[in-house]
Design brief:
Layout: H1 3-19, E1 27-35, E2 40-49, E3 52-64, E4 67-73, H2 79-85, E5 93-95
């Protein structure tokens, strides 16, 4: 299996697993969005917590030029760590939510 196909499969598996976890509070649905043509992957939350609207990404990952860019990670564990556990090398993962100046210290790719 080529690298890109493998990365797509792992990302979809990880996001699908997270989508199965029901939030402890509120009436919140988890919605998977996979754009495999353009390599954009998201897990969104949508619903209500009492009178407050909940909507937005829990996880947003893109693949650009063979590198995984974690655009947003609202998990406790850290989705990048889960990708590493599934044998995706740290040097192929960028934590895009970190400042480019600080990425050199996070243990993952800089860009």
């Amino acid at each position: 299996m080529d690298k890109l196909k493998h990365y797509r499969q792992i990302i979809q598996e990880v996001l699908t697993e997270h989508s199965q976890i029901k939030p402890a509070y509120g009436e919140i649905q988890m919605k998977l969005l996979f754009d495999v043509e353009r390599d954009h992957y998201q897990l969104l939350r949508a619903g209500w917590l009492e009178e407050r609207r909940i909507y937005g990404p829990l996880i947003h990952i893109d693949i650009e030029n063979g590198t995984i860019w974690v655009q947003y990670d609202g998990t406790e564990v850290g989705v990048a760590n889960e990708l590493v556990e599934r044998r995706i090398p740290r040097e192929d993962i960028v934590l895009a939510y970190h400042s480019p100046l600080l990425r050199q210290y996070d243990g993952f790719a800089v860009s």
